């Protein structure tokens, strides 16, 4: 997938711990966990209200089309700006 690459140390980098845990539904498989708790201390919080599924259904008019998307690997397809990648390093 090309989602992880080896990098050299840089000024202002932030290192977070990474580890694995067995998946609940299949303990023979593991999921990777990147612990960003320390980084979150520097992130400002902005409250927003997410619409409910019911409110989204009310917006659908006759002859509207719907799509279904598998978001299982969607996290890995979100691009990260080059200048922000130094904050998502792990060890």
TrEMBL record:
Residues 2-91 form the Reverse transcriptase domain. This is Reverse transcriptase domain-containing protein. InterPro entries: DNA/RNA_pol_sf, Hepadnavirus_pol/RT, RT_dom. It comes from Patella caerulea. Transmembrane segments: none annotated. SUPFAM superfamilies: DNA/RNA polymerases (SSF56672).
């Amino acid at each position: 997938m090309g989602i992880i690459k080896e990098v050299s140390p840089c000024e202002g980098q932030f290192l977070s711990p990474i580890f694995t845990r067995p998946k609940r539904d299949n303990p023979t498989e593991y999921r990777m966990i990147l612990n960003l708790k320390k980084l979150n201390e520097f992130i400002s919080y902005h409250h927003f209200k997410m619409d409910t599924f019911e409110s989204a259904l009310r917006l659908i008019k006759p002859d509207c089309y719907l799509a279904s998307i598998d978001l299982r690997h969607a996290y890995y397809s979100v691009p990260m700006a080059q200048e922000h990648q130094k904050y998502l390093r792990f060890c």
